[in-house]
Write a structure and sequence with these properties.
about 400 residues; alpha/beta; Nucleotidyltransferase, domain 5; 2 domains; five-stranded mixed beta sheet; binds 5'-O-[(R)-(carboxyoxy)(hydroxy)phosphoryl]adenosine; binds zinc ion
Length: about 400
């Protein structure tokens, strides 16, 4: 005891991850076993398969994290685990194992909200890079992933953080829109990295996509909206200026594909990228989409019209994320912005957010590319202040697929 080491465990979606982090500020080890190969051929995460894969991976992944850190259970101060939001069955695998480890090794257990984890992925990077004392200023945080698009005002208070929900999506998450448009275009899963790689070869103004102001519809008032990964808050009390909606642009992209006769091209691409699919065989590793390895290879599969559609889609989504994030920062007087979650890995997003922040003299930060997508280092980092404040999980901790942060 007393090394300041927390073992973090994350199994909320399709990555089985474990990490050892020291005092929320130094990553000692971080192991992520991705299930992409399993889900890619279905074009999305299959919950039953996710649970099964977590069951297979959890023990070796935790062992690898401890081995890479060169520590044993006796060297740990606590075990931290994602309690939600996420897939119920997937979360349960991590929670059950974390509880067993904590009990067997007489370690306290800390429950972490997955979204708080994404926010701490950025804080962890900041602490690793500058050893400075943490600022007590509030931060506007945009969490944009496959399951969430949420804006929070995060406030540090002598080490502990509290969060106020400012905005969120009323339907699809931003990453979900990337995934669905990529699938529509016969590109691989997850779609974000594909669209990111191809967008720079298209004209971002080629297709006029527009986002209209989201209205708080009467029938949504007080209701919890639908999203892929989780529904985490009713929208009734939120300012409609900070609500996102990505299902419209997905439909607009579909219409564009139909009207411009891009369907056959997309089918051909899907057959090339998923050879097993073309043979009617959904099994085997050759059914897995291979990411475009070179610029020429990716380009060769797409006509210019498709590349323009890809570039315009990405440009429009990022523009909308920017408009609402910077609008909220201005309204709330936040001088610091943090963008995190899988979509924060996007190159154009980082460039444009950074430029806009510089123009407005706001500080902005992102996680490292590897900490953008799901991992357990962010869970162990988020757990540290809770551990220090003795905020431990109850003995009957269970998975909460719709756990709220604010
Ligand atoms: O945070 P994450 O790993 O898992 C969730 O908590 O959902 O985010 C995964 C999402 C996927 O939708 C994926 O397409 C998207 O993040 N993503 C990206 C990029 N890399 C991953 N979206 C846009 N550009 C990227 N480079
Ligand atoms: Zn995530």
């Amino acid at each position: 005891m007393g090394n300041g080491l927390i073992l973090g465990i994350e199994t909320s979606c399709d990555e089985t991850a474990a990490a050892v982090v020291e005092r929320g500020r130094r990553t000692v080890s971080s192991v992520v076993a991705s299930q992409i190969a399993t889900h890619a051929r279905y074009g999305g995460v299959v919950p039953e398969l996710a649970s099964r894969e977590h069951l297979h991976a959890i023990v070796p992944v935790v062992r690898a994290a401890l081995e890479q850190a060169g520590v044993g259970f006796k060297d740990l101060d606590a075990v931290a685990v994602t309690a939600g939001p996420g897939l119920a069955g997937a979360l349960l695998v991590g929670i059950t194992y974390a509880k067993a480890l904590a009990y067997a090794n007489r370690l306290p257990l800390v429950a972490v909200n997955h979204l708080e984890g994404h926010i701490h992925a950025v804080l962890l990077r900041e602490r690793e890079e500058h050893d400075a004392r943490e600022s007590e200023e509030p931060v506007l945080a945009l969490v944009a992933s496959g399951g969430h698009t949420h804006l929070y005002l995060a406030r540090p208070q002598s080490g502990l953080w509290s969060y106020g929900l400012i905005g969120r999506t009323v339907d699809d998450a931003a990453g979900e829109a990337f995934d669905k448009v990529a699938k529509l275009l016969g590109l691989g899963y997850p779609g974000g990295p594909w669209i990111d790689a191809l967008a720079r070869f298209g004209d971002p103004d080629g297709v006029p996509f527009s986002f209209s102001q989201v209205k708080t519809k009467a029938h949504l008032r007080g209701k919890t909206p639908r999203t892929k990964g989780a529904s985490t808050s009713p929208i009734a009390e939120l300012d409609p200026h900070f609500l996102f909606s990505f299902s419209g642009i997905k439909t607009a992209a579909l219409r564009y594909v139909e009207v411009h006769g891009l369907r056959n091209e997309a089918e051909r691409r899907a057959d090339l990228l998923y050879p097993a699919r073309a043979e009617g065989d959904g099994r085997g590793t050759d059914g897995v989409a291979r990411p475009p390895q070179t610029k020429d290879e990716a380009l060769a599969l797409c006509t210019q019209v498709t590349l323009d559609l890809i570039a315009s889609f990405q440009h429009a989504v990022i523009g909308d994320l920017m408009k609402k994030t910077f609008g909220a920062a201005e309204r709330l007087g936040a001088n610091r912005i943090l963008v995190t979650g899988g979509v924060a890995a996007n190159r154009e997003l980082r460039e444009r957010f950074s430029q806009e922040a510089a123009a407005r003299r706001l500080a902005i930060s992102f996680p490292t590319k590897t900490l953008s997508t799901d991992n357990a280092a962010m869970i162990a980092a988020a757990a540290w202040p809770r551990y220090e404040a003795s905020q431990f999980a109850p003995a009957d901790l269970s998975a909460d697929p719709v756990l709220r942060l604010a």
